[in-house]
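User: Please predict the structure of the protein below. I'd like the answer in structure-token form so I can feed it into my own downstream comparison script.

Assistant: Understood. Taking the following sequence of 705 residues as input:
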Amino acid sequence: MKNSTLTALLFLGFHCAASIHPLSLESRITNSAGVALVTLNHQVSYWDQDHHNIYTLYVLDVEAYLKGSLRKNQIAVVAPGGTVGYEKQIVFPNFKLTTGKEYILLLGEEDTQHQNVLYQMTHFGMPQLQAYTGLQGVFTKQHGHYHDPSNGKVFSETDLAAYIQQLTRFQAVKPDGTHWRPRVTSAPLQISSRSITSVNNGAGNNPSSYVAGTIEDANDLIITGSGFGSTQGSVEFFNADDGGATFIEIATPSDYVSWTDTQIRLKIPSEVGANAGTGTIRVLDATNTLVGTTSITIDYSISAVYSDFSGFAAVTRQFPALADIDNNGGYTYSYNDAFITNTDATASFERAVDTWRCGTGVNFSVSSSATTAGIAGDGINVVTFSNSLSSGTLGIATIRFSAFSNGICTYWYAEEMDIAFNDGTNWNFDGGAPSFFEFDFESVALHEVGHTHGLNHIIDNSAVMHFSISNGTTKRTLNTPELNGGGYMLAGSITAPCVAGMGVPTQHIPVTTKTDGTGCVLPIELLSFEGFQQTNSNLLKWVTSSEYNNEQFILERSADGLHFQTITTIPSKGNSLTAQSYTFEDKQPLPGINYYQLTQKDFDGYQEKVGMVVLENKIAASKLTILQNPVANQRLRLRLQAVDQGLAHLHIFGSDGRLVTQQPLAVTEGLNQLDLPVHQLAQGHYYAQVTFRKQSFTQKFLILP
């Protein structure tokens, strides 16, 4: 049975290629234009000549040609995606090469359409090539062996070179034409549980599962044991973008929070080329020696934005909020005029949208009017067919992000989202089961809409957000972790961010939830769910227009929008086709922000989240000030204006962006004067970053001798 890889792309956002058919190793090598053993020298990102997309040129030092010698000491490979200034485009599936690391690459033809013209002018004669089969043509060398991204097989250099020679009858040569011999490599790393005694989340608990890509300290991963080394090594995870066929390392240094000989604290990664999934994790010390392994389950993964905009000392993950782009609380898709004529396709797509909307309350809707627009940054959320997708690609979803900053905090939000499906695919559009030779359109659409919701891949073959889907199968039901992931995205998007009301244009924020309209079969029809702040309490009110088989309402409360606790249950007033009103007074609300989540429960035990309200008891924004700059007497004096009491976190970065030290800070509501010793810091410039209540504040300071 064929497998196809489901994927995502970020243009100031994400592009999600929904399906790649895994090709055999024999066919990939045989059909490639060449094969080379290379080391990445450097990379350059650039706009194409039409300024439509960003690409990255990987400049490679050639050790040997294993097929089709170009007799060049350096070659370049063009890959989609990259960063130019504060504009970013990330492509899934995609390969990400690391400076100084070795790879065996399958080479395609010269990429004349997307080549870097300026680089070509200064490096005349250097070929700029396509990477044949993209991700499937990149064999990464990890711990002395090469990993096949299509099936997870591991090869020694000798075995892989011999297999290539057997297929191609090509004698491997160095760039100067002399004979090349493969090097002897050591045995692959073996699974080991030594040195690791426990894993916990950032709150100190030992949960049954974790989440990736979030920004909250409580969702950090803490690995405790011994022998990790005092110098930072690396932690590797199963790669969710290929179903765990390969391991990935943390790509962004700021995701490592701290590292000691006995404890590692990190943020579970979720970015292109480094998206962690369920399975084994490996800890290696600074000498690249395996010191321990364990395994974790990752329920869902958020497509985080990584950026140093604005005021961050280093590239740091940011929460990618949903927004009120259509002025109706969210996003409206528009069918291309060629797509709207296929009524079976539109009906299938709308079933997928309804599944997410009814499950999480995401405010997605579909316009009844067609558009001539295609996939472009034009402010229109297009759904279309395309005949230009690569072979085996079922669909792509593009999300474009924008950011606001007021100098105190930064807010990223999804500004536009487009989806295209391959019109050359043998689709099953109806609600029945596909034949063996068909791909299920609704399943692929559900996956792509999940990416626009803000979710990344996970490793669970039965899940909608798993990286692959097979022909003849369906995935039309969202599991609980996927619904929780969607709920996390909404919890962080439905309240006005820290930039609101501070001179920043905020006409598109925050998003609102939506479960009304066709497609949602619910035991209740909720007319409204509102919250009102009173002198010493919060009043919650909701009204239903109809109820059937509804046993009760469950009202939950949270301080962070993630971890909820039930504060009351209220019985239903019975089956009804007329309006029914309910109220509850929370006489002991939490300080600061209160998230209230309303859940409806059937008599048969089925539960459905039906609404969320956010009440903030304080409207003032937190603010960080350094009182003496340059720092005097080896004491860093900070002033933090806090909206309420709680635990803040101080991180100090060097001018090179590396984390120097960190510590928790207990703060009270109002003005906090903090006097901290910094005698261990050498002369130079530093950045103090304080994180509190999902807000980050960064100030630069100088230490003189």
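That's the full token string. The radius of gyration is 26 Å.
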